Amino acid sequence: PLIFIIWCGIIILFFYFTITAQCQIMDTLQDQKRTLQSQILVLRKKVSNMEQLQNQLANLKSMATVLEDRLPEEKEIPDLLITIEDAAFLSETEIQSLAPQALIPTEGYTEVPFNTALKSSYYNILFFINYLRQPPRMIQVKNFDFKKDKAEGTFLVQMNLSTYLVAKEESSQ
C-alpha cells in the first residue's frame, strides 16, 4: 500500500505540474488572443477611416479638376475680356473702363486682376455680376464702390475683377 500511495502521489504531482503549466500557457494564450482581437478592432477602424479618406481624396481630386478647368490659360485672357464685354452687353451695362493690372504670382496660381468702371442701373449691375458667374471660366468680383449719378439716375461702379492662372510646374532636367 505504501508503494501504491507513493505512485499515486507521483502521478498526482505529475498531473498537477503538467496541468498547472498548461493552464499558465492557456492563460497566456487567452491574453494574447484578447490583445490580438483589440488590435484587429483598431485596424478595422483604421481601414474604415482609410476608405472614407480615399473617397474624400477622390472627391477633392475631382473638385480640383473641375476648378482647374474653370481657370483659364494665358492664351484665353482675351476671351475672358470678350466674356466681360458680353456680360455688359446682355445686362445693358456700359463699361467705361476695363484695365488689366499687373499679374500677382502666388504659390500654385497667378492672379490676373482687372480694374473696371461700369455705368448702369442697380439691377443691371446685378445682372452683369450674375452673367460673370455663368461662363465656364472663373471670374471673381471684388471691391465694389457704388456712386449714384443723380443727373441720370444710374450708378457708377468701380470694381476689381480677377481670374486665376494655374502655375505651371517647372520640370527639372
Structural class: alpha+beta
Give the mean pLDDT: 84
- By DSSP (H or I, 4+ residues per run), the number of helices equals 3
N-to-C CA distance? 97 Å
User: Any low-confidence stretches, pLDDT <50, length ≥5?
Assistant: none
Q: Topology, please?
A:
Blueprint: H1 2-70, H2 77-90, E1 94-100, E2 104-106, E3 109-120, H3 122-133, E4 140-149, E5 154-166
Antiparallel strand pairs: 1-3, 2-3, 3-5, 4-5
Helix pairs in contact: 2-3
Give a quick summary of the entry.
The protein is an alpha+beta fold.
Overview of the molecule:
There is one protein chain. The chain is 55% helix and 26% strand. With 173 residues, the chain is an alpha+beta fold. It is rod-shaped. The protein starts with a helix and ends in a 7-residue tail after the last strand. The mean pLDDT is 84.
Entry keywords:
alpha+beta; 173 residues; single chain; five-stranded antiparallel β-sheet
